Amino acid sequence: MSELNRKQTGVLVMSYGTPESMDDVEAYYTHIRRGHAPTPELLAELKGRYEAIVGGVFPLRENTNGQVAGLQDKLEQLAPGQFVCYQGLKHAKPYIEDGVERMAKDGITQAVGIVLAPHFSTMSVGSYMKRAQEKAAELGVEMTFVRQYHMHPKILKALTDRVVDGLSRLSEEMDGEGRVKVLFSAHSLPEKIRELDDPYEQQLLETSAAVAKAAHVKDWQFSWQSAGRTREPWLGPDILETLPGLAEEGVKAVLVAPVGFVSDHLEVLYDLDIEAKAAAKELGMTLDRIAMLNRDPLYMETLAESVIEALDSQGKE
Fold first, then answer.
1. 220: pLDDT confidence band, cut at 50, 70 and 90?
2. Which UniProt keywords are given for this protein, alphabetically ordered (predicted)?
3. DSSP 3-state percent helix, strand, coil across the chain (nearest 5)
4. Cα–Cα distances in Å, from 35 out to 26, 103, 153, 245?
5. What are the chain's domains?
6. Regarding beta strands 251-257 and 286-289, do their DSSP bridges make them parallel or antiparallel, or are they unpaired?
């Protein structure tokens, strides 16, 4: 490795991960369930959900690959030759530890970790950081992290534009007739995070309020989605529990803005586009959602600027 490359900063881009094929679904969910394989019934249901959204073909992984490549391109524009991106996934290969190991093998001694999730929780983003930090310490890589970027002006602009576009589409579809509600949503977490003074819920409300204000939306609320199937209580109400109440209030159309997610994946393509849409239809309502960020240039700039800022802050400590 050249002297120049030795001075490069690694960027560990972390995400939840998705299976690469239908054959990987069981191993993927076994990892999520901490070594406990899903029951045959649950596995069949999970495979059915993937079949419904991708027909057994997996473009979902490409979204994360594209975001990592997009961030690399944006960093190269802003700081030529300074950064090199690596991928690390929570529940699929390459795992978080694999990404750190690759950096170390390439001679990287300084790195920034960032998660493809804007809002911090000790149970989500915090767990990614912990795994990365432990492996980095073991391999002699000095790491700093972007904890959150939920109020970065550029991600707020990207989300606002999507809400405005979504409302315009819905208004046209309904000929301007009937009440439209904006529902901001994010992945639920166990209720016990409230006992930990975890910032996740508050950060999501901050993002939602900022986007609603910028989009001049007054009729909105926040709802949870995609809770895990465990015995402990999860944050609610779920969007499927919210919709009947909106129908009773006279809401005719719902625009879902899943601000807790940054790409098209199961929780969006199935939980919202299929399950929630069908539930709304049964209640006599139209349900649509905003387009996901994926490789939006404003999102790539948000990530790149957050990485550079984190590195600069580390240098000043």
1. very high
2. Cytoplasm, Heme biosynthesis, Iron, Lyase, Metal-binding, Porphyrin biosynthesis
3. 50, 15, 30
4. 11, 27, 40, 39
5. 3-149+296-316 (3.40.50.1400), 153-289 (3.40.50.1400)
6. parallel
- What digits encode the pLDDT tens for the residues 261-270? 999 999 999 9
What percent of the chain shows pLDDT beyond 90? 81
| Helices within the chain (DSSP H only) | 3-6, 25-32, 40-54, 60-78, 96-105, 125-139, 153-173, 200-214, 239-249, 266-269, 277-282, 297-316
95-138 confidence digits (pLDDT tens): 999 999 999 999 999 999 999 999 999 999 999 999 999 999 99
The predicted pLDDT at position 59 comes to 66
Is residue 49 a known part of a binding site?
yes
| pLDDT above 70: residue 3 | no
Give me the pLDDT at residue 58, please.
Answer: 61
* Confidence (pTM): 0.94
* pLDDT confidence of residue 188: 98
User: Can you tell me the distance from the alpha carbon of 313 to that of 215, in angstroms, rounded to the nearest whole number?
Assistant: 32
131 is annotated as contributing to ligand binding: no
Q: Are 31 and 92 in contact (CB under 8 A)?
A: yes
Residue at 94: amino acid letter: P
Is 128 annotated as belonging to a binding site?
Answer: yes
149 is in an annotated binding site: no
CA angle 128, 121, 15 (to 5 degrees): 35
Counted residue by residue, the chain has a size of 317
Burial class (CB in 10 A: 0-12, 13-18, 19+), 219: exposed
Q: What is the DSSP string of 72-86?
A: HHHHHHHSTTTEEEE
| Residue showing tokens 């919210």 | 242
| 37-80 tens-digit pLDDT | 999 999 999 899 988 987 655 667 889 999 999 999 999 999 99
